[in-house]
Design brief:
Blueprint: E1 19-24, E2 30-35, E3 39-44, E4 50-55, E5 61-66, E6 72-77, E7 80-85
Antiparallel strand pairs: 1-2, 2-3, 3-4, 5-6, 6-7
Length: about 90
């Protein structure tokens, strides 16, 4: 028996490189992407439209996580923590 799976992949284009983290919001509606060279972008998970963008002054993003209610995304930088309201 042969089982086949079909997976449709979507891609979002960005000028930033070196993704250092990716996190889905608790409700699954948004995807936050952190870039190594100090940028955070939030995307609509359905159509990959960028809904928010923050320049973090070239400090490396070392971690991130959403709050339980999905209204905030905490981002850990090499210089401290930045909170983005989504």
């Amino acid at each position: 028996m042969i089982t086949c799976f079909y997976l449709k992949l979507h891609a979002a284009k960005t000028d930033f490189r070196a993704v250092s983290g990716i996190q889905f919001s608790p409700d699954g509606r948004h995807i936050a992407t952190a870039f190594k060279y100090g940028h955070l972008a939030v995307w609509d998970a359905r159509d990959l439209r960028q809904v928010a963008s923050v320049n973090l002054d070239w400090f490396e993003v070392t971690g991130m996580d959403y709050s339980e209610d999905g209204t905030r995304c905490a981002v850990v930088l090499t210089k401290g923590t930045y909170i983005l309201i989504t």
